[in-house]
Amino acid sequence: MSSNRELTMSSYVGIGVGLMMIVGLEVILTFQHMATRTLLFSLLTLASLEAFVAIMYLMHVKYEQPILFWTIFPATLFVLIFLCYFFPDAFRMFSMRLK
Amino acid sequence: MNHSELAVVEAHAADVETSRLEHGILMEASPYGIDKKKLGMWMFIVSDACTFAAFLFAYGYMRIGAPVWGTPFGSSSIVNGVVMTAILLSSSLTMLAAVRASQSGEKASAKNWLGVTMLLGTIFAALHLREWFKLIGEGWRLFYNPTGGAPQFGATFFSVTGLHLTHVVTGVIALAFVARGYNQGRYDQSHVETAGLYWHFVDLVWMFVFPLMYLMNAH
Question: What domain range is A18 assigned to?
Fold first, then answer.
């Protein structure tokens, strides 16, 4: 994962152009009259891909020691997934209130 | 104490002194091999990612729970959103250029790139506010939907985009402070790099905010 050979500035511009192309693809998909669930899944997949590229290259995680990646990202993903999973369960607290 | 024992004690004392001079206090080097400011920024980014995720999950659940959801964005708003995305992405590239220039000791170039990044951030904020005022002009409020649908659209849209806008404005102010300190010699390249990390995170969040808040609500 880690590498000492950083990209040149023109390569970063190429990454920026690639990210803009993904945004363009998102806009095209939006106007394809897809089912809401399919559109949501497609947009989230593309956004996650963009985020991964941004984290690895723009935020330089690819060039840091692997321990940084393995310390931060699995734990964060775990928290985010469980946050999403338990979020609606919080509404149960309203019915648990003492009358 | 013989001569060899004395030499060992002196060598240890020299190591301690070197460590104290390098780190300020006696401590081991970071196992992550990065500056402590940068590690602190990563911790902040993780906590901030959870905050944004909570806002976006709340939006998702409200949207699923509402029978009719507002879709106020026409093609002009989407084009505006694409332009905003392009500007924010470009600002990430100029931020990278600033970090590179500071790492190679090109102070004037780093300062200029930081200035361009601040300018792009300000343009982004202005376009964002234009979109807000357009919606407010159409009658959208925090708790009011002029089309008669779910009133939660305004609450979720203005909160999520407002939180992001706050981050952009804070980022521009932080970059101004870093640029000033760097120019005066109070800050070094590690400060520029840490500020850059924050700026890229703001860009990263927008990659989720734009499709979820704008594209999913296009008519």
Answer: 9-96
Which residues are CB-contacts of B151 (< 8 A; sequence separation ≥ 6)?
Answer: B143, B144, B145
* Residue A2 resides in a domain: no
- Could you give the CA distance from residue B140 to residue B154 in angstroms, rounded to a whole number? 6
Whether the CB-CB separation of B111 and B179 falls below 8 Å is answered with yes
Are A47 and B201 a contacting pair at CB < 8 A?
no
Predicted TM-score (pTM) of the model is 0.87
Q: ipTM higher than 0.85?
A: yes
Instruction: Tell me which residues of chain B have a pLDDT lower than 70.
Output: 1-27
Give the residue on A whose Cα is nearest the Cα of B65: A88
Chain A positions in Cβ-Cβ contact with residue B100 (cut-off 8 Å): 9
Q: Is the pLDDT of residue A88 over 80?
A: no
Burial B19-40 (b: 16+ CB within 10 A, else e): eeeeeeeeeeeeebebbeebbe
Q: Which residues of B88-104 are buried (b: 16+ CB within 10 A; e: fewer)?
A: bbbbbbbbbbbbbbbee
Nearest-neighbour CA in chain B from A99: distance (Å): 26
